[in-house]
Specification:
Blueprint (H helix, E strand, L loop, with lengths): L3 H14 L26 H15 L2 H14 L32 H14 L6 H15 L19 H7 L7 H10 L4 H8 L6 E3 H8 L3 H5 L3 H13 L10 E3 L11 H7 L6 H8 L4 H12 L1 H16 L4 H6 L12
Antiparallel strand pairs: 1-2
Helix pairs in contact: 1-7, 2-4, 2-5, 3-5, 8-14, 8-15, 12-14, 14-15
Bound molecules: protoporphyrin IX containing FE and 2-acetamido-2-deoxy-beta-D-glucopyranose (NAG).
Length: about 325
């Protein structure tokens, strides 16, 4: 949580400069290129796509797992594959950080893609790039938009256990704190609202929505018969007390496996599953974000266009250190020896 004075400062920025965002990384960015692997691994996109097709066909949830992994990679030291590293004697990975623990899956899908690529073009394609392309393909495969993915990231030799806790927003994060975490990454309020639309797919665990369904869900949803029955369902899945922390519910209960804009319709109805999601529409600070939620609810094309642009921007968060001494890992779980 950012100190209050910082939050107020940021609010002023947000209100007056709208899409202003702090470019922490942009100025030193070594440019990524669309055709980075054109001569060294021309089949890279085809290989990733084929593996992702199998994964998402066998279970659409896999699309959500990969999309979230990419987000959690990029917000910690930039998109450098750091989230993929396993714990070893000499390296403390990010997987056990409280925000990630029991909450990240899909690593085996990345392993499978990496194996294919190592046999096709050994030592060439970084795990960070694999994850970025896989997240794009995941989105398309559940009905979302296409975008071109700039490539050429390097994999880190370190992980950011503490950074995972400080940089990543949690389920009960307030709006101003979310905004400040996005600004810190060079992402704007618009990026925040558009990227949150990723919650149109995937599941959340009871431990992450309990405060919401025993908190202000009733108030924001206005107690219509439909929202009442939705709330009762959620409370059955997730009792106020007891050991059901890992029971899951879809964040978009209407079309849980489809990448569409119905997430924003849920927010308009006050039925967002996470406190953090409903904040975008219902927070007293959310003048700008509320307008954006309305816009994306009304206009699916505007949502798809902004989501694509914001995903490229998030994928552009680079780890300057990894360009200096980064590598192409042979195994995404371990630094090369
Ligand atoms: C804006 C701040 C955000 C917050 C506070 C947030 C929080 C969360 C939480 C609490 C969950 C449920 C995790 C669990 O219960 O295990 C979740 C799931 C998910 N998040 Fe976010 N998230 C945010 C932004 C994003 C972004 C930017 C993306 C990707 C572009 C994303 C993609 C996902 C996906 C796909 C899932 C479902 C994963 C699954 O099915 O296992 N989220 N998020
Ligand atoms: C992302 O980076 C690429 C190459 O470095 C650049 O051409 C592009 O404009 C950037 N896109 C965004 C949305 O920041």
């Amino acid at each position: 949580m950012a100190p209050r004075f910082l939050q107020c400062f940021l609010l002023v920025l947000v209100v007056f400069l709208d899409d202003f965002s702090v470019s922490l990384h942009a100025s030193q960015d070594p440019p990524l290129k669309l055709d980075y692997y054109e001569s060294t691994c021309p089949s890279v996109l085809e290989i990733v796509r084929k593996e992702m097709e199998c994964a998402v066909l066998s279970d659409p949830r896999n699309a959500a797992l990969i999309l979230r992994l990419h987000f959690h990679d990029c917000f910690v030291q930039g998109c450098d594959g750091s989230v993929l590293l396993d714990d070893t004697y000499t390296l403390k990975g990010e997987k056990k950080a409280s925000i990630n623990d029991h909450a990240l899956k899909g690593f085996n899908i990345i392993d499978r893609i990496k194996n294919k690529l190592e046999s096709e073009c050994p030592g060439t394609v970084s795990c960070a790039d694999i994850l970025t392309v896989a997240a794009r393909d995941a989105t398309i495969l559940v009905g979302g938009p296409y975008w071109d993915v700039p490539l050429g990231r390097k994999d880190s030799k370190t992980a950011g256990y503490e950074l995972a806790t400080s940089n990543l927003p949690g389920a009960n994060e307030g709006l101003l704190s979310m905004i400040s975490k996005f600004l810190y990454q060079g992402l704007s309020v618009t990026d925040l609202v558009a990227l949150s639309g990723a919650h149109t797919i995937g599941m959340a665990r009871c431990v992450n929505f309990r405060d919401r369904i025993y908190g202000d869900y009733e108030t924001t949803s206005g107690m219509s018969p439909v929202s009442d029955s939705n709330l009762n369902n959620l409370r059955t899945i997730c009792p106020a007390t007891g050991g059901e922390d890992n029971k899951e519910s879809a964040m978009d209960s209407v079309t849980p496996n489809l990448f569409d804009n119905s997430f924003y319709h849920l927010l308009l109805k006050g039925q967002g599953l996470l406190n953090s999601d409903q904040e975008l529409y219902s927070s007293i600070w959310g003048i700008e974000t509320k307008k954006l939620v309305q816009k994306y609810a009304e206009n699916p094309v505007a949502f798809f266009e902004q989501f694509s642009e914001s995903m490229v921007k998030m994928g552009n968060i680079t780890n300057d250190q990894s360009f200096v001494d980064g590598e192409v890992r042979k195994n995404c779980r371990f630094v090369n020896t």
